[in-house]
TrEMBL record, chain A:
GO terms for biological process: phosphate ion transmembrane transport. This is Phosphate ABC transporter ATP-binding protein. SMART domains: AAA. GO terms for cellular component: membrane.
TrEMBL record, chain B:
Pfam families: PhoU. The lineage of its organism: Archaea, Methanobacteriati, Methanobacteriota, Archaeoglobi, Archaeoglobales. Residues 15-98, 117-183 form the PhoU domain. This is PhoU domain-containing protein. InterPro entries: PhoU, PhoU-like_sf, PhoU_dom. It comes from Geoglobus ahangari. GO terms for biological process: intracellular phosphate ion homeostasis; negative regulation of phosphate metabolic process. PANTHER family: PHOSPHATE-SPECIFIC TRANSPORT SYSTEM ACCESSORY PROTEIN PHOU. Signal peptide: none annotated.
Length: 250, 196
């Protein structure tokens, strides 16, 4: 079954059309990478999926996005955001909150636990799932701002996982991390994609090749090529994809 | 990406050197059957091919490590490693043929022409200037026919085991050249096209 289906999605900022009729099917579980050069519309696409674009009054959206068959535009927006977690390029934990509270906050707000014991268990589970627990278990009450960049990003992933989403969107999650921290996030994606549908936006074909099962190449607001990762990177069908993955356009 | 293109051009230059060494070795091995003074020259080519193959493997590994190539660039880097090994093997086979003391029959020697023609087609294939598949099939069929004919002749008139081995090696050289051509087609088009 497809986790996400996108039909003829068009997005306009003022009068500039950024996405020009995107059609995509993102299968359930596994990692789906959206790659393309800067300004091609990949982050816009990601934000459209969990309806973050609607926060901007200048944006016009047409077409449809379905989450497990249900149009996200007809779903309650809170439900959309709960079922589709998002991790951004810059790690953005709540700096004034503790590590524990960063993970617990949304769970508390959404009342997905009944008592303190359940909350403790959920926080521990999410931190473990994000491969962060062992590094922070002795300082859960310390402020999140004391963590390294890579740890902050994994904390954001734990925060998203605490809501038990079905889909996890990641917008260039390693763009601001060093190779070691990036490696840990990529390893984590490999773990998460067994249970979740992970959609990652990246401008790095090498990263897409390392973490994804399927990849879509977007250029100037259009999907140029979609396919199995080994096909797209070894034998791309479209000349533009060939040029992009070999670094001859960007 | 000029620096990537420059690396690819350097690698191509190296593999073409190996191509010429392999061709020379095959050419000389037929002459060595009649003139053993040439054996030394083939041994020298064999050493050169070993060194060059190792160098090409190293350069390809470096290319992959440094540039993380994809698509055609990746097919090229991996393909060059395989192709260089095939050339090195051809030189080994040519050297073995050159060492045979038995006076090989003319039917075996007649394989020289189609084999050298296969080298020329492959060389043009590096620059997409050949209908690699069809030209190679025709030439390899000619080599195979010679091989079968030699075996039939040996059955009637056995002279020495070395003739059987030489015929087998010649057929194998043809196969290896077809494998190189198959790789080249894959590098250029991304499609596997079987020649044999």
């Amino acid at each position: 079954m497809n986790a996400i289906e996108i039909d003829d999605l068009r997005v306009k900022y003022s009068n500039v059309e950024v996405l020009k009729g995107i059609n995509l099917e993102i299968p359930e579980r596994g990692c789906f990478a959206i790659m393309g050069p800067s300004g091609c519309g990949k982050s816009t696409l990601l934000k459209a999926i969990n309806r973050l674009l609607e926060l901007n009054p200048d944006v016009k959206i047409s077409g449809d996005i379905r989450l497990f068959g249900e149009s996200v535009f007809r779903m309650d927006v809170t439900k959309v955001r709960r079922e589709i977690g998002m991790v951004f390029q810059f790690p953005n934990p709540f700096p004034h909150m503790s590590i524990y509270d960063n993970v617990a906050y949304a769970a508390r707000c959404n009342k997905i636990v009944k008592n303190k014991k359940e909350l403790d268990e959920l926080v521990e589970w999410a931190l473990k799932k994000a491969a962060l627990y062992d590094e922070v278990k002795d300082r859960l009450r310390k402020k999140a701002s004391q963590l390294s960049g890579g740890q902050m990003q994994r904390l954001c992933i734990a925060r998203a996982l605490a809501l038990k989403p079905k889909v996890l969107l990641m917008d260039e999650p390693t763009a601001n991390l060093d190779p070691i921290a990036s490696g840990k996030i990529e390893e984590l994606i490999h773990e998460l994609k067994r249970d979740y549908t992970v959609v990652i936006v990246t401008h790095s074909p090498a990263q897409a090749a390392r973490v994804a099962d399927f990849v879509a190449f977007i250029y100037m607001g259009k999907v140029v090529e979609v396919g199995d990762v080994s096909e797209v990177f070894e034998r791309p069908k479209h000349e533009l994809t060939e040029k992009y993955v070999t670094g001859r356009i960007g | 990406m000029k620096y990537v293109d420059a690396e690819i051009a350097n690698l191509k230059k190296e593999i073409l050197k190996l191509h010429e060494i392999a061709k020379k070795a095959v050419e000389l091995c037929f002459r060595a059957i009649r003139d053993k003074s040439i054996v030394k020259e083939i041994s020298r080519l064999e050493e050169m091919s070993d060194e060059l193959e190792a160098r090409i493997h190293d350069s390809c590994s470096q290319f992959i490590i440094r540039f993380h190539p994809m698509a055609k660039d990746m097919r090229f880097a991996v393909g060059m490693m395989r192709i260089s090994s095939a050339y090195e093997r051809i030189v080994d086979l040519a050297q073995e043929i050159s060492l045979y003391e038995c006076n090989l029959r003319d039917t075996i020697l007649s394989a020289e022409k189609p084999l050298l023609a296969m080298f020329d087609v492959v060389k043009r294939g590096f620059d997409h200037q050949a209908d690699l598949r069809n030209e190679m099939i025709a030439l390899d069929d000619a080599v195979d026919e010679i091989y079968i004919k030699v075996l039939e002749e040996i059955e009637k008139d056995f002279r020495c085991v070395e003739e059987v081995l030489a015929a087998r090696h010649i057929e194998r050289i043809g196969d290896l050249l077809c494998k190189i051509a198959t790789r080249l087609i894959y590098i250029h088009s991304g499609k596997w096209t079987w020649i044999k």
